[in-house]
Amino acid sequence: MDLLQRLARFLDRPLFPWKRLIVGFSVAQYFFEGFLSIRQYQILKERKPPRVLESEVSQEVFDKSQAYGRAKAQFGFVSSLYGQAQNLGFIYYDVLPKLWALTGIWLARCAPAQYTGEIMHTLIFFFTFNVITTVLNLPASYYSTFVLEEKFGFNKQTLKLWVTDMIKGQALMVVFGVPLLSAFLAIVQKTGNGFFYYLWLFGIGVQVFMITIYPIAILPLFNKLSPLEEGPLKIGVEGLAKRLEFPLKELYVIDGSKRSAHSNAYFYGLPWKKHIVIYDTLIEKSETEEVVAVLSHELGHWSLSHTTKLFGISQFHMFYLFTLFSVFINNRSLYKSFGFHREFPIIIGFILFSDALAPMDTVVKLLMNILSRKYEFQADEFAAKLGYSKELAKSLIKLQIQNLSTMNADWLYASYHFSHPILPERLGALGWVSDEKSTDTRKMDAEKPLKAADREL
Question: Mean pLDDT over residues 40-59, rounded?
């Protein structure tokens, strides 16, 4: 604790240029990520697929995949520039202190005296700021869904469903945000310099709560879960679960097709009671053994304790974040650099602290992606040892084609951005060999695309 206090005093220096430093971090990260995107864009101009895919992917599909990748990259260039301009504009025009002052005026005029403390003020500020950023990001969200994704056949949403989902999301933010943010602030206010420890315990409790409540109260607001019908697929999945001693409680099909052609399969739940969810689009576009192979990969993550290890890493990361936050929470020079001279709100301190920590977050992201790719190879190997090497390879190829996913990637771009290995790497690790292009590939060329969502396979 004494070490943290000494570090806090060291960093709280009058006239320290925190604003210039944070702006510098932001601009440097923007240009670095832009540099990576330019490198990847060159790969997206290639005219031939990787050697391992030459016998699996037609030239037409490869050209469409490259065109889709370039379209996403071009949109990324514009949206990242817009986001960077928005961020710098907020800083340059002192949006945070002005919005904090404005919401304080609203609170003083409209709320009874007993509701004018920092917690209520923070709630009004937070939700007002969220509405502003949501509105500012609507054009990019609309274009991504109804122009870019629509052009390549992925979007299944109607405008009404898009708006409804957005309203539901905002409503959930209020329902869960009010008690969670209030508790966060109360813990910091009432537990002294050691608040980071209590915040960490609170964070663990919130994660366990969300794991429990999400499938019961949140997921049904957006999708319908139905029990998987009796048949070969159910028999195959239940047999796989029994073989691995996976504590399967329920097996569901989710109606992902009502929003998009995205597809996936995943599991969730507490350690002693797990549920498997399979997208209806995955079932529609895949053979039974291919779906079971995909699930053997996913259950491989469970059997190899990847999910437990990642959960443990996330707890360590959360503890380290809250511990460092305790160093910055009373840093007056940081607050003053961004226009807060009389009031020093906890939420503002956390926002500025997060901005100051951006370089470290970049390093953490890189390391986590390296670990994640390692785990993906291990899960593939696990599925192969169960006898699903061929079926998993076929499923990955089929999804790659239906997704119009990028067939290749720049190594530096992939290292920084990708949590999963690219397909040629996975096929090589699985020992996939194909002498000729399958007739299924030719049939799929004319089908609508199927894209992996949430946790990629």
Answer: 92
Alpha-helical segments (H) within 144-223: 149-151, 159-190, 195-213
Rg value, the chain, Cα? 24
- Cβ-in-10-Å burial (0-12, 13-18, 19+) of 59 comes to exposed
User: Which residue is catalytic, options 56, 290, 298, 355?
Assistant: 298
Q: Could you give phi then psi for residue 16, rounded to 5 degrees?
A: -65, 130
In the annotation, is 298 catalytic? Answer: yes
Model pLDDT for residues 157-208, shown as the tens digit of each residue: 899 999 999 999 999 999 999 999 999 999 999 998 899 999 999 999 999 8
361 is annotated as an active-site residue: no
Question: What distance in Å separates the CA atoms of residue 23 and residue 27, rounded to the nearest whole number?
Answer: 6
Catalytic residue among 149, 376, 380, 391: 380
Predicted TM-score (pTM) of the model is: 0.87
Q: Is 192 exposed, middle or buried (0-12, 13-18, 19+ CB in 10 A)?
A: exposed
Q: Cα angle at 291 between 297 and 61, to 5 degrees?
A: 100
Distance CA 325, CA 348 (A): 12
Angle CA(37)–CA(71)–CA(36) in degrees, nearest 5?
Answer: 5
